[in-house]
Amino acid sequence: MPQPAHLDPSAYSAEGGSCGALLIHGFTGSAAETRPMGEYLAARGVTVRCPLLPGHGTTPLHLTRIHWQAWAEAVESALGELQRRCTAVFVGGLSLGSLLTLWLGAWHPELAGLIVMAPAVKVKDWRIPLTLVLRYVLKYKPKGSIGDSDLGDPEAISRIWCYDETPIWGASEVYLLQRRVLKLLPHVGLPVLIFQGRRDKDLVPQAAQILYDKVASTDKTIVWLEHSGHNVLADGEREALWARSYDWMLARLPAANQDRKREIP
């Protein structure tokens, strides 16, 4: 995957009203993939934070000795800052970001809702557990060529900034986080909106349903993106995802904040 010069991988933030959104990018990716959705929400009055996770947005070397707790601490910090500014906060994340979204949802029942994109609760590659051993002997796994991509929109590749190699150590930390999140799902009772692309080659086709069945939420919805791959934030149906998420958020603002909806045109 390329690192297009026109994309900014750094963190993005925007000030708005009393409704906040924390958007978390995926593994080896960057805030370049969450920024467009963040800008969409910000244009509608939402206060937005799109952090850059530790080890990302620089070089793959920085993911060769990372620990998942560093990612958890980064999103906890971003969430705390949003909660000091906003009365209702939603959290959304893609892939690795989806795991961190669910992690926050398990520990923060005060959140207004979770938007889980490409839920990495079960991946196709059966070798993932082996990364716990392989990370001591291999540093990187090269990614496939652009032709191997599952993206439905051929232009989507120009909207992605990520590493060209997958650090094995970092991948093993994603696996460790996944195991912990799976145990926490029965404790997630928040409203949950789940997006998965039908073309996703990284996740099992049942990933969205597995998440749906395991969370304790009574307010939960699966949205299938028929023409999208794993990176639903860059693929051709991304704008429909943004709009669906925004409408879903508006419908779930706490009753005490109904009078504040007018802050979001």
Topology:
Layout: E1 12-14, E2 19-24, H1 35-42, E3 47-50, H2 68-85, E4 88-94, H3 96-107, E5 113-117, H4 131-134, E6 140-142, E7 165-167, H5 168-184, E8 192-197, H6 207-214, E9 220-225, H7 238-251
Parallel strand pairs: 2-3, 2-4, 4-5, 5-8, 8-9
Antiparallel strand pairs: 1-3, 6-7
Q: Rough shape?
A: globular
Count of helix runs: 7
Strand order in the largest sheet: 1-3-2-4-5-8-9
> What would CATH call the homologous superfamily?
Alpha/Beta hydrolase fold, catalytic domain
Count of domains: 1
- Helical residue percent band: 25-40%
Which value, in Å, is the CA radius of gyration? 17 Å
- Tell me which CATH architecture applies here: 3-Layer(aba) Sandwich
Could you give the count of β-strands? Answer: 9
Broad structural category = alpha/beta
How far apart are the first and last residues' alpha carbons, in Å?
A: 37 Å
Instruction: Report the average pLDDT across residues.
Output: 93
**Name of the top-level CATH class:** Alpha Beta
